[in-house]
Task: structure prediction
Amino acid sequence: MIDILAAAGSAGAAPAWTGWILPLGMLLILWFLIIRPQMRQQKAHRERVAGLKKGDEVVTAGGLVGKITKVDDNFVHVELAKGMTVKAVRSTIGEVLNAKPAPAAND
Result:
């Protein structure tokens, strides 16, 4: 009787690769729910910052709202009120308020 139980137990062993299914599935879910959307947001922010131009109304990461008066390589000059201009790092621009959508390309 013991020989029959021992033979039945060893015959039903799963292949070793099945132990990787759960971790790979979790990584796949992590990729599509967290990493990929964050990469899209970062790309959109880089494009917004690269497209800054004089006259754009922007919001900084600190919550200041103003109009860009000068654009340098690493800095932008933002006019918060008449005669009050501050120098801000380009990457701290959070949002462009008067952004116009790019025209759709006809492929």
Observations:
- The domain at 2-96 is CATH 2.30.30.140 (SH3 type barrels.).
